[in-house]
């Protein structure tokens, strides 16, 4: 199946470069380009994109606001957003995930990393660049101030009570950045069983993908941030 990609960046030159790269892949195609967040949201609806490569700093509606709008729209439930920006800083990583992004990647990444990010996001996995470590995310989630309240979803954290013991165990492993195969080995079950638990946890918690499971695990206190 061809992955439909939408490019959202206010720099036409960068969009052109990304288009050439994406269109060179047999399993991908660029279905639209947006120069601001509002246009990205509109095109995501019109073009039924699978993945949106979203810049953060754009005029008018910025990338975070656009990501939040896409994530909140039930009609765009299948759209995954990968934040692609020059400003690979801690606060942006956390805000991106809270807004509903499936991943975060610096613009200085290698072409292969970008293409891999698109495929990972399209499969519903969480993608974080090497600079965005799980420990860093955990610290910022734990230390978030009042200004971050708008990005929180208390109801999702409260739904933890609906998880089974095994689903909680799997959620802890997901928050640790482990793959289904790694979790299967740790818990001595099959990868298919892990996938089933992950999918059930996502459904119960209202999470779009694994990235949102990570946010929920830390915000709810199920997983505690590391001190280092």
TrEMBL record:
Domain Response regulatory, residue spans: 4-122
GO MF entries: DNA binding
CDD domains: LuxR_C_like, REC_NarL-like
HTH luxR-type domain mapped to chain residues: 156-221
InterPro entries: CheY-like_superfamily, NreC/VraR/RcsB-like_REC, Sig_transdc_resp-reg_C-effctor, Sig_transdc_resp-reg_receiver, Tscrpt_reg_LuxR_C, WalR-like
Xref: Gene3D superfamilies: 3.40.50.2300
Residues with PTM 4-aspartylphosphate: 55
Alphabetical keyword list: DNA-binding, Phosphoprotein, Transcription, Transcription regulation
Transmembrane helix recorded as keyword: no
Entries under PROSITE patterns matching the protein: HTH_LUXR_1, HTH_LUXR_2, RESPONSE_REGULATORY
Highest taxon in the source lineage: Bacteria
Keyword DNA-binding: yes
PANTHER family: TRANSCRIPTIONAL REGULATORY PROTEIN NARL-RELATED, TWO-COMPONENT RESPONSE REGULATOR
Protein name: DNA-binding response regulator
Organism, as annotated: Streptomyces prasinus
